[in-house]
Amino acid sequence: MRRDVFTEDHELFRAQVRRFVEKEIAPKVSEWNARGMSDRESWRRAGAEGLLGVCAPTEYGGAGADFLYAAIVNEEMARVRAHGMMISLHSDICLPYLLAYGTDDQKRRWVPGAVSGEVLLGVAMTEPGAGSDLAGISTTARRDGDSYVLNGAKTFISNGQIGDLFIVVTKTDPNAQPPHAGVSLVLVEGNTAGFVRGKRLHKLGLRGQDTSELFFEDCRVPAGNLLGREGQGFKMLMQQLQQERLVIGVTAVASCRRALEDTVAYVKDRRAFGQPIAAFQNTQFTLAELATQVEVGQAFVDALLAAHVRGDDIVTEVSMAKWWTTDLQKRLTSDCVQLHGGYGFMLETPIAEDYADAAVQSIYAGTNEIMKVIIARRMGLGG
Ligand SMILES: Cc1cc2nc3c(=O)[nH]c(=O)nc-3n(C[C@H](O)[C@H](O)[C@H](O)COP(=O)(O)OP(=O)(O)OC[C@H]3O[C@@H](n4cnc5c(N)ncnc54)[C@H](O)[C@@H]3O)c2cc1C
Fold first, then answer.
1. Which ligand 1 atom sits nearest the alpha carbon of residue 206?
2. How far is residue 345's CA from residue 41's CA, in Å, rounded to a whole number?
3. What's the CA gap between 24 and 183, in Å, rounded?
4. Cα(302)–Cα(305) distance, rounded to whole angstroms?
5. 367 Cβ inside 6 Å of ligand 1
6. Is 261 one of the annotated active-site residues of the chain?
7. Residue 62: how many CA atoms within 13 Å on its side-chain side?
8. pLDDT in tens, 263-289
9. pLDDT exceeds 90 at position 231
10. Coil, strand or helix: which one is 155?
11. Which of 178, 306, 361, 376 has the most CB atoms at less than 10 Å from its CB?
């Protein structure tokens, strides 16, 4: 179905992105998956091509474009399964914090590099003892003269090895009541003394992405690295989550489309009992149902994209989209593996990788259970 949300200019941009991604990114994906991380040169090339920070203002090197352009980049990256290079995390999840809350100094210092691909970004919220319950973190940032001194441990941090600048969620007031009132965001550069990169974690999926532990051991950063104001960290995180969850919905549907397309091609080709397996009614019904659900998901995501660009408050709806589209992605990839038979279980078959990659979508960026907690709360249910 034609997607009305995009203009002709958006589609021209998509054609440019697709050409670049097919030529420069797709050939790298299996290498990244084997190595467990992407490479800096590809980030620089993506930056030179204008694929990073497309929404950043022109004065900092961005294109000042609307979020639909960012969505296009994310869809095209998902289409070639380039999950190892998480442009979405860098451009659409981390960079907005700098743009929204950074001082002029902070923006001048880091945004142009983020747009060119020289400064790769990450956000460090999760700790070994606290994920969903973010106010329960224990990493501290103690003010000491003109510095903050950070101590604590983070885990599951995307871009943990390759990242240059991390937005670190800390407690500047560990005794604050309620606890979230003590949360502050501090920017930490990767070469700071006391900032220690732990091991790259071995994962079920997203094998090309360097999810890592990070440690802060008397890690001293200038007081000017505070992002926004002390005690406002939790509020800033909540304000940015709308876009983060929408991004997941965008990539989930794009990944579903690719998995479905590949499976449709496979069932037309593969034969059993003297006919293509596409001729079996079970195959047809399974794929017809999945195709229907992908269109429903796409229509919802597109409506949310339009609303987000308008500036509407769609926290409830993006929470719905996040859980529903990622749930669909998990079911769809599971069914597509089944339709591939034994080949679906082999890692050299892309659908096997799709199945493994889908698993995390319901976990990060707020688990799907947390999405339902938010929806229920906004419906006036519970305490
Ligand atoms: C590949 C990958 C990349 C990641 N990248 C990053 C990153 O870049 N930065 C970062 O900070 N974090 C990152 N994360 C961490 C991710 O955001 C957390 O794993 C996630 O928020 C869940 O936290 P947790 O793992 O502590 O699970 P827990 O919070 O311990 O949850 C365990 C289970 O309990 C359920 N649960 C918890 N609370 C409730 C509740 N109130 N009601 C109902 N059920 C509940 C959860 O839904 C889940 O099913 C990443 C994780 C992965 C796997």
1. 1
2. 32
3. 40
4. 5
5. yes
6. no
7. 23
8. 999 999 999 999 999 999 999 999 999
9. yes
10. strand
11. 361
**Residue-level pLDDT at 383:** 63
250 CB under 6 A from ligand 1?
no
Of the candidates 186, 165, 300, 180, the one whose C-alpha atom is nearest the C-alpha of residue 245 is: 300
Report DSSP state, residue 86: -
Label residue 382 by pLDDT band (50, 70, 90).
confident
Nearest CA owner, ligand 1 atom 41 = 370
Amino acid at 310: R
Q: Nearest C-alpha to atom 12 of ligand 1 is from which residue?
A: 126
Decide whether any atom of ligand 1 lies within 6 Å of the 156 Cβ. yes
Query: Quick one: which H or E segment has residue 189?
Result: strand 183-189
Query: Which residue among the candidates 75, 76, 127, 244 is catalytic per the annotation?
Result: 244
What integer is the mean pLDDT of 303-322?
A: 98
347 DSSP 8-state letter: T
Residue 1 confidence (pLDDT) above 90:
no
- Dihedral over Cα of 319, 321, 324, 328: its sign: negative
pLDDT given for residue 183 in this prediction: 98
Mean pLDDT of 230-249: 96
